[in-house]
Amino acid sequence: MILDKNWRILTVGDGDLSFSYSLAKYLKPIHLTASIYDSESALKHKYQDNAFDKLANIGIDIITEFDVTKASCWHRLSKQSFDAVIFQFPLIPAFASYESFQQQTLSVNTLNRQLLRRFLLNATKYALDPAGVNLGIITSKDVKPYIEWNIEQSLITNTDLCYLGQSTFDISQFPEYLIRNVDRDKHVKDTSGVSYYWSINHSHPITSKLQMPHYLAPNHCTICRAGPFVSEVDALSHQESKKHKSMQKHEDQWQLYLQQHK
After folding, report:
1. Whether the Cβ atoms of residue 128 and residue 135 lie closer than 8 Å to each other
2. Residues 34, 55: contact at Cβ < 8 Å?
3. C-alpha angle 261/218/112, rounded to 5°?
4. What is the pTM of this model?
């Protein structure tokens, strides 16, 4: 993960705050603000082992009940005062009941894309300094269902944001970081992760340090991460596959959502 101690960093949705604590302890950025979706009491009830008090004791600002989808929460920050805003392993919470799931008109895939798109748009509008480093960073797992979100391309349709590239996420950079289950006090297996970077600066200097995945090249299917196709017949055969049709369904649902929420 490419970070710099000279950056002003905001973390969002940092479940037990162990990522923010590792940043504070080992990277030591010039400024760090940490935020969580839960209240302090809910956090401590959900995660018996948490870093809330350790962060508070070293003077790190902690914002509780911070919902990245709501402008009112972003208004609680000093406007456009950060260089990087980081969302680690985001995932929508489980539905409270089967009835609430049945009442939801959007697919789970679309709901997760919606969460990430709103995060990037709100971070850019309210938190990132346009004259600063200006990076929105999302780290996500490189397995299903996360790779089915088309995270590189789908989130920034009809925006000024540019996808800059990605880097491998190595958890050993953050010795006291514990990846958590979004809903309960359980550690999640440290599966391979990727950190993705966006900015309004389309010629951002950090691109020289990032990788662009092979499946974004011509003669590939971006949504399936498949290819290269050696011929038109090869590409058409892929488009008729069960995997592609399933992924195309996700894309069609997402495009419909975007059309309805311009």
Report:
1. yes
2. yes
3. 30
4. 0.92
What does DSSP assign to residue 252?
H
Are the C-beta atoms of 138 and 90 separated by less than 8 Å? Answer: yes
Q: How many CA atoms lie within 13 A of 151 on its CB side?
A: 32
Q: What span, in angstroms and rounded, lies between the C-alpha atoms of 227 and 213?
A: 12
Q: What is the pLDDT of residues 81-105, one digit of tens each?
A: 999 999 999 988 766 666 766 777 8
Residue with tokens 């999640």: 188
**CB within 8 Å of 219: residues ≥ 6 apart:** 227, 228, 229, 230, 235
Q: What is the DSSP string of 187-217?
A: BPP---EEEEEEES-TT-GGGGGSB--GGGS
Report the alpha-carbon distance of residue 213 to residue 197 in Å, rounded: 13
Phi-psi region of 225 (alpha: psi -120 to 50; beta: other; left: phi over 0): left
Task: Average the pLDDT over 242-262 and give the result.
Answer: 94
